Amino acid sequence: MFNLPEHNIHLSATADNKQQAIEMAANALAQDGYVAAGYLQGMLAREQQTSTFLGNGIAIPHGTLETRDLVKKTGVQIFQFPNGIEWGEGNIAYIVIGIAARSDEHLALLRQLTHVLGDDDTAASLVTLQDKAEFRAILMGEKKEPALQPDFITLDVETNSALTLTAINAGKLEAKSAVDARFVSQVIADQGLAIGNGIVLNDNAQGNQFNAVAFSRAKQPFYNANGEAVQAVMTVAAVDDQLNSVLARLLTAETQTALLQASSAEQIIALLSGKSVKADNTQTTTSAVQQVIGTFTVRNEHGLHARPGALLVSTVKPFAAKVTVENLDRPTTAVNAKSLMKLVALGVVAGHRLRFTAEGDDAKAAIEAIGKAIADGLGEGAGITPKEPDSIEEVTSAVAAASAPSATGAVNSDGQIEGTFSLKNEHGLHARPCALLVQEAKKFQSAITVENLDRQSAAVSAKSMMKVVALGALKGHQLRFVAKGEDAQQAIDAIGAAIASGLGE
To answer: Which active-site residues does the annotation give?
Structure first.
């Protein structure tokens, strides 16, 4: 484990530019006896050779091979810049890690940073955090996540495949960094262990990052290849013995029966935690999906750097509506508009058009507030005049009544090709039809996203098996595909034809 003393972490730092930030890191390394005088020149020279920006707001300035002899001992100094530092090519660094290494020892730190670089929300949490101990724990991957989380529970999946349930579990565990790709590939290939009452348990010895339990349950029981009734799959990631009590409860017939009858993720967690569960008599009602779409041109001369980005996020966060945003001038998928890291990562420059999609009771108010903030220049004044007018449109449809697909390949207001299709498969998008759909999407170069309008899901890549399965698409659900690229029309046409033909079923 790479050593990182808390006193080497400097929170709420300020610097005018990249060079000043690097000088601060170099001075801190020198003061703590890690390097000798002259190492700063090596750090600046390295930056001239190639940018040390890694992604997700993190930069790692370090010396050249020629200045390695100036390193007295391996170590790092970490500076948090909440306002961000322009690091070149439109990249903004919020966390600057100055590295002194006599050989390749710093690679150990970089390996530990992998979970931060791959998780926007984790990286974003470091930007304003004011607790050094927690900052260090997150950065070093030592912060313990709860093993039982609502995000790990999926109920009423329309499927007759244990593989689909396992894929959903593995995808959720991987998304939270509880497991890595090795775990996912191995656990999907494993049939699991039938422990009774239609519950299958699976795990794997490889790729476990922290203790976690994922649970997926089909709407109706089905039979596997061995003639055994199956309705739920529990996937376990374990790094020690702390989940033994959870597994012990799982092996009792009483808990198994209760897990199959529980109506919410909270009840599932309570059962596995050994707590009593109250009956849930809440009935689900069909509601209307209201979607408000706003398309706005960014006026700021320097685009969405840290300050205007933060103001935009603060504009969105007070609203309860789910709001996503995509950069129409770059092939990006929609991201959470309440995440500063994800917003900055869109690479928005002056003149780029952003499409915001809001769903919820206050969706219209959210989009109107966003439009006004952007028109006002996000605290920096309107630097340019848009070539196209901003627009806001409302789309309201009853979930239960949605049935007819839209015209294949309709061109939306942003020049993208989109199509909305009704899923015909009797058992929804379980593993086999899902694989065929993803395979069809991968034939095309265009960026393709899909969202489940009946579940009000965010748009995800149509080329990702895990993400498409996680949409939980059932028979009759409306799937909206949006394609951007030279072969976008062909892609939407092919996807529509594949869905119309039943995706192999």
So the answer is: 62, 305, 430
